[in-house]
Write a structure and sequence with these properties.
Elements (H helix, E strand, L loop, with lengths): L1 E7 L5 H10 L4 E3 H8 L5 H10 L12 H8 L3 H28 L4 E5 L14 E6 L2 H12 L3 H9 L4 H7 L2 E4 L4 H15 L3 H23 L3 H17 L1
Parallel strand pairs: 1-3, 1-4, 2-3, 4-5
Length: about 240
Amino acid sequence: MLVIGLTGGIATGKSTASREFKALGVPVIDADEIARTALEPGQAPYTMVVKHFGASVLSQDQTIDRAKLGGIIFNDTGKRQLLNRCTHPYVRRQIIQQLVSLYVRGHSMCVLDVPLLFESGMDRMCAKTLVVSCSAEQQAERLIQRNQLSTEAAQARIAAQMPMQEKEQRATRVLDNRKSRDELAAQVRQVVRDWRPSALRTLASLAAPLGTLVGLVCARASWGLPTLCACSLWMVGSWCLF
């Protein structure tokens, strides 16, 4: 299964691109959605966040006020890193579980939607990466309108992230979101056409673990070197096809 990492800067249009992938039937694993689940009462990250940041980040119903928490971490690198240490292990585990689930169900590709894809090192889980980009002026304007922020607050949130130029340099492909949503959607459709693995490669990727299992069974059962070599070659061949 081809895993595509999708990221961008805050308010550059990553979520719009994610919805376009979903509309094309490509499964999307949303790290932000998983992170929201992590901060629900009863989850281990919730307990850690309350312990380290205090009851001031809680709403009256004892849920974490994400706006309050965001205001704290976007102005303090150390506290932002502390929050990441509280939540990232949980998010990673959930992402891996969802990847395995999609893989065994035979999906040919999926998108891993992660705001901090490169910063967190999750790009290493992806065969290809996409960055949704727009001009710095558009990014600030969109963020101010979307989140009802002052210019200074918006610039502080943008500055807290990896520079867009660095993200673009690290990406396999950049999706240009300086114009209309239709143009962004057209770029997403082109990515799917260019990158979707063939049915043969998808089948081969499913066969490879089976080849590994057969090889181990053969070795354990002492079926002989020729049979073991044949199974191993099949396994390697399957991986090479993918």
